[in-house]
C-alpha cells in the first residue's frame, strides 16, 4: 500500500472541500482526461495536453482571474498532477542548490550559499506525503512507519533524503541536494575556488596517477571537485565509479558506474559500498573512484590503492587535512578485519599521496583551503607537507571572504614522480622540502 494511502482521511479533507484549490482542480483534471491517451504521449506533449485541458476547465468552471494568476494556477495544477507539485518550479530554478522541506508549511531553499524561506508551502501534510511517495517509488524504495528514513535520487540526479514521524517531530522532512553541471578546473578557477597554478598542479597529480583524497564538510563542493579532477584521467583508462547515489558525471568513454542498494522490504538484498569496492577489484579497473567513504569500505579502498590501482580518487568528510588522516584511520578501523592501529597507519602511508581540503566561507563561497601531500612512508609516523593554503583576510561588514592562495615548494619525492610521468611542477610552487610546512600526525 502506498504511503499516502495509510494516512488519516481528515488530514486532507480541507483541501478536498474548499473551492478553487489545487487539489480540487487536479481531481477535476484527472476526471476529464483519457489516461490511456495521455500515456502514449512524450513528457513534453503530456504537459502541453494537461495545460490545455486545465485552462479549459478553469475558463469554464473557475473564478475570474488575471492572466498571471490563471497561468500560475494552471502550472500548479499540472505540476501536482504530473510532477512533484510545489517542488517543480524549484527544481527548474538553476539558482537553487538545496531544497529543504521541514513539514508542509516550512520550505527553505539555498541560493548562492544563503538559506531563505519561501512563502508558499504544501497545501497539506497529505500532499507532502504524496510527493515523497512519488520520489521514492521512482527508485523502488520505500518509506513508512517501519522504515522512516530513506535515501534516494531523482531521475535527473538530485540526491534526496526523507525522514518521517515518529523520528521527525515536525512532520515529514524532505531534503533535496541539487548538483550543478560538471564544472571544469578552468571554470572553478574563474569562480575563485582555486588559482590557475593550483589547477595545473592538481591536474598533474591526477595524470601522474597519484592517489588523491578530497576532504571537506557538508556542502563544500567535494563532488564538484571530484568531477573536475576526473576530467584529467586519460580516455583510454578503464574507470569504475562507486557511489551511494549516482552523482558523478564523468566524460570518459570507458566508465562503469556502480551504485549501492539498500535492503528490501524483508530486510534482505543490501549491497554496500564495501561490497562494490571488493567487486570492483575483479573488474580490471585502471582507476577506482569512490564517491565517499564513511565506514569499513575505507580499508578496502586503501588496500586497492596499495595493490596496483594508483590514481584512485575518493572523498571523505573532514574539517582539515590532519583530520582527514585521523578520520581515515577511524573509518578503516570500523572494518570487520581487525588490524592493529599501527597497521592502519602503514596502509595510509602507502596509499594516500595527496589531500585536497575544501571549505565554505560565511558568504557561501566554496574554495580549496589547503593542499597537502603525504611525505612519510612505510612504518614512519604519518607526516603531511603543505603545498598550498588559502590565506584569508579578516571578514569585513559585508561578510565577503577575501584572501590569496599561497604556494609552497612541492617535496622532491612527489616532484620526481611527476617528472617520471612526464608532468611538471608549476613555477609558482617550485621544488624543495620546507621543514616549516611539515606536520607529523601521531
Automatic annotation (TrEMBL):
InterPro entries: P-loop_NTPase, T2SS/T4SS_dom, T4SS_GSP_E_ATPase. Residues 1-21 are annotated as: Disordered. Residues 83-360 form the Bacterial type II secretion system protein E domain. One of its GO terms (molecular function) is ATP hydrolysis activity. Residues 1-14 have a biased composition (Basic and acidic residues). It holds the Pfam family T2SSE. Belongs to the GSP E family. PANTHER family: TWITCHING MOTILITY PROTEIN PILT (PTHR30486), TYPE II_IV SECRETION SYSTEM ATPASE (PTHR30486:SF15). This is Putative MT3759-like conjugal transfer protein. It comes from Actinomadura rubteroloni.
Amino acid at each position: 500500500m502506498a504511503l499516502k494511502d495509510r494516512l488519516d482521511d481528515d488530514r486532507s479533507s480541507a483541501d478536498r472541500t474548499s473551492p478553487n484549490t489545487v487539489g480540487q482542480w487536479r481531481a477535476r483534471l484527472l476526471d476529464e482526461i483519457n489516461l490511456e491517451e495521455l500515456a502514449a504521449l512524450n513528457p513534453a506533449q503530456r504537459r502541453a495536453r494537461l495545460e490545455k485541458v486545465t485552462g479549459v476547465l478553469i475558463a469554464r468552471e473557475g473564478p475570474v482571474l488575471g492572466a498571471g494568476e490563471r497561468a500560475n494556477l494552471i502550472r500548479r495544477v499540472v505540476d501536482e498532477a504530473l510532477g512533484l507539485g510545489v517542488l517543480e518550479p524549484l527544481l527548474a530554478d538553476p539558482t537553487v542548490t538545496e531544497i529543504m522541506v521541514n513539514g508542509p508549511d516550512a520550505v527553505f531553499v539555498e541560493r548562492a550559499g544563503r538559506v531563505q524561506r519561501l512563502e508558499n508551502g504544501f497545501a497539506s501534510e497529505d500532499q507532502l506525503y504524496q510527493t515523497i511517495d512519488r520520489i521514492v517509488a521512482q527508485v523502488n524504495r520505500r518509506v513508512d512507519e517501519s522504515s522512516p528514513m530513506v535515501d534516494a535520487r531523482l531521475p535527473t540526479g538530485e540526491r534526496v533524503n526523507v525522514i518521517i514521524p515518529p523520528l521527525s517531530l515536525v512532520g515529514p522532512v524532505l531534503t533535496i541536494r541539487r548538483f550543478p553541471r560538471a564544472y571544469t578546473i578552468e571554470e572553478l578557477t574563474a569562480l575563485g575556488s582555486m588559482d590557475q597554478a593550483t589547477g595545473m598542479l592538481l591536474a598533474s597529480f591526477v595524470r601522474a596517477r597519484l592517489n588523491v583524497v578530497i576532504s571537506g564538510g557538508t556542502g563544500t563542493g567535494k563532488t564538484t571537485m571530484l568531477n573536475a579532477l576526473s576530467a584529467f584521467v586519460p580516455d583510454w583508462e578503464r574507470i569504475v565509479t562507486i557511489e551511494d547515489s549516482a552523482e558523478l558525471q564523468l566524460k570518459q568513454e570507458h566508465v562503469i558506474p556502480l551504485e549501492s542498494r539498500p535492503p528490501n522490504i524483508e530486510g534482505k538484498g543490501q549491497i554496500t559500498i564495501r561490497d562494490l569496492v571488493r567487486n570492483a577489484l575483479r573488474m580490471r579497473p585502471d582507476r577506482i573512484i569512490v564517491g565517499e567513504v564513511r565506514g569499513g569500505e575505507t580499508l578496502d579502498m586503501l588496500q586497492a590503492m596499495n595493490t596496483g590501482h594508483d590514481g584512485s580518487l575518493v572523498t571523505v568528510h573532514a574539517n582539515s587535512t590532519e583530520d582527514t588522516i585521523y578520520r581515515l584511520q577511524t573509518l578503516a578501523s570500523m572494518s570487520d578485519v581487525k588490524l592493529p592501529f599501527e597497521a592502519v597507519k602503514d596502509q595510509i602511508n602507502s596509499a594516500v599521496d595527496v589531500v585536497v581540503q575544501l571549505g565554505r566561507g560565511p558568504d557561501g563561497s566554496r574554495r580549496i583551503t589547503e593542499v597537502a601531500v603525504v611525505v612519510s612512508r612505510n612504518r614512519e609516523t604519518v607526516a603531511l607537507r603543505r603545498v598550498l593554503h588559502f590565506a584569508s583576510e579578516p571578514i569585513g561588514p559585508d561578510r565577503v571572504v577575501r584572501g590569496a592562495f599561497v604556494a609552497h615548494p612541492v617535496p622532491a619525492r612527489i616532484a620526481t614522480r611527476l617528472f617520471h610521468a612526464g608532468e611538471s611542477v608549476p613555477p609558482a610552487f617550485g621544488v624543495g622540502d620546507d621543514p616549516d610546512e611539515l606536520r607529523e600526525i601521531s
